[in-house]
Amino acid sequence: MDSGELRLRIAYRYPFHEVGSAHQRFEAGGVLGKILLTF
Fold first, then answer.
1. pLDDT on residue 7
2. Of 14, 24, 28, 32, whose CB has the highest number of CB atoms within 10 Å?
3. 31-34 long-range Cβ contacts below 8 angstroms, 24+ apart
4. What pLDDT shows up at residue 1?
5. pLDDT at 26 over 70
C-alpha cells in the first residue's frame, strides 16, 4: 500500500448521521467507487 500499488476509489463521503442519504445513493446505482461513512 505504501508503494501506491493499491488504490481505493472513494466516490462519496458522508458523515455518519447522513447514513440514510448514503444508502439512497448506493441503491440508486451508478456509483463508481466506495461510499465512505465518516465518524
1. 82
2. 14
3. 33/9, 34/8, 34/9, 34/10
4. 59
5. yes
